[in-house]
Amino acid sequence: MASPPDKSKSIKLERYNSYIRRVNSTKLLNASSKLVLRATVLVALIVVLVLTLNYPKTGEPHGVQRQMLSSGFGAWEKQVREWGRARREGGMRVLVTGAAGFVGSHCSLALKKRGDGVVGLDNFNNYYDPSLKRARQAMLWKHQVFIVEGDLNDTPLLEKLFDLLPFTHILHLAAQAGVRYAMHNPQSYISANIAGFVNLLEVAKSANPQPAIVWASSSSVYGLNTHNPFSELHRTDQPASLYAATKKAGEEIAHTYNHIYGLSLTALRFFTVYGPWGRPDMAYFFFTKDILHGKSIDVYQTPDGNQVARDFTYIDDIVKGCLGALDTSLKSTGSGGKKLSPAQLRVYNLGNTSPVPVGTLVSILESLLSTKAKKHFINMPSNGDVPYTHANVSLAFRDFSYKPTTDLSTGLRKFVKWYLGYYGLPQRLKKQFRPLPS
Ligand SMILES: O=C(O)[C@H]1O[C@H](OP(=O)(O)OP(=O)(O)OC[C@H]2O[C@@H](n3ccc(=O)[nH]c3=O)[C@H](O)[C@@H]2O)[C@H](O)[C@@H](O)[C@@H]1O
């Protein structure tokens, strides 16, 4: 006979099962609430990150925030006002864009040294090693030149700078430079050289008083021009690179703002500027580095076997040209965003007037570095380069006595001296290297 089911056993089993169910559902709840918590934290982090990266759409300008945080609220504005004031009778108040750049840092220092007020603006982008830009910034800081960290396309920042200080002049040197890089990152040229320039002009035309503007164009605007030496009267409507096209576009945009708003505008066509504190993306700079490190270098030649040549221009000559252009620029004539009378519009070549083949540049470096280069002669790639440049500078000489005085050997000697002081000598060369006579 089957025994009757044990009731107490089945009740216990039921209790046990319900306990297990409760435990499982609590575990599930814990697991899902943990998941929700984690997801919330992640979303919050993403929101903070996005806000930080986009900061600010309005209000305080990007980058300046960091300076404010590090130096106390209002400190950077005070710095701009104080260091931007001229220290000499009749001195200028100059906003130098691209002040942490090669030409910008040299010009800022020269202006400051002669008693003009200078405020720098730079976005410290990473087109080349930003630590070099930081080192230039530190050097300028010692001379009481303050660089605001921000972008040309940041309208609130530009407006704020003009609110803080009525600049008499802008020396506009911020740009996306480099001829060959335009094939890799075309948009950066549009953003800096066109959109950024227009933004600056928009703010300048509404400023009261309007500043006079001197800005960096480029020898590359001559493009496929074959007349020699290059004169401001020659054609510049055949650019060979997007870089050149954006600089040429800048010249046309300058014409428009001069014509409509009465802005005084001077374009300076720089010819392959080199020297201490230079740009690591330029041939003389990376040739030096590669020769010292035993790496081979590409020396370009034209398809008919000739070497390419450049009118290499030493930085000190360029600085004199920039200051000369600033000193002779007339006031803008607009007010309240309207032109009141015709204003000055100028274009000048700033070159050295004596082109040198790239092979000769390499020989000079070999002798200065006491090291043989591993040269690799190749046909110039079709990436925007032109076979030669050669400046006629008679206009700049006529109007502000521009006269280059530094030949390539002298200038490169100064560059190499700086380079070795800044970067030091690679270990492998320390024994054999003879110091440069001063
Ligand atoms: O004059 C100018 O307007 C321009 O000068 C330079 O452009 P570039 O003259 O091409 O200067 P580098 O890039 O330093 O080249 C110098 C020479 O070395 C040649 N090169 C360059 C690179 C290389 O690997 N090998 C080589 O032989 C180039 O063809 C050129 O003839 C600057 O990079 C531009 O920003 C500036 O606007």
From TrEMBL:
Q: How does it sit in the membrane?
A: Multi-pass membrane protein
- Name of the molecule in the record: UDP-glucuronate 4-epimerase
Q: Which domain of life is it from?
A: Eukaryota
Transmembrane helix is among the record's keywords: yes
Q: What organism does this protein naturally occur in?
A: Psophocarpus tetragonolobus (Winged bean)
What Pfam families does this protein's entry cite? Epimerase (PF01370)
Q: Where are the transmembrane segments?
A: 35-55
Instruction: Indicate where this protein resides in the cell.
Output: Golgi apparatus, Golgi stack membrane
Q: Which GO terms describe its cellular component?
A: Golgi cisterna membrane
Name the predominant localization: Golgi
**Major enzyme class:** isomerase
Q: Which family does it belong to?
A: Belongs to the NAD(P)-dependent epimerase/dehydratase family.
Documented EC number(s): 5.1.3.6
Reaction equations catalysed: UDP-alpha-D-glucuronate = UDP-alpha-D-galacturonate
Record-annotated NAD-dependent epimerase/dehydratase domain positions: 94-328
Q: Which UniProt keywords apply?
A: Isomerase, Membrane, NAD, Transmembrane, Transmembrane helix
Q: How does it assemble?
A: Homodimer.
Q: Name one GO molecular function term.
A: UDP-glucuronate 4-epimerase activity
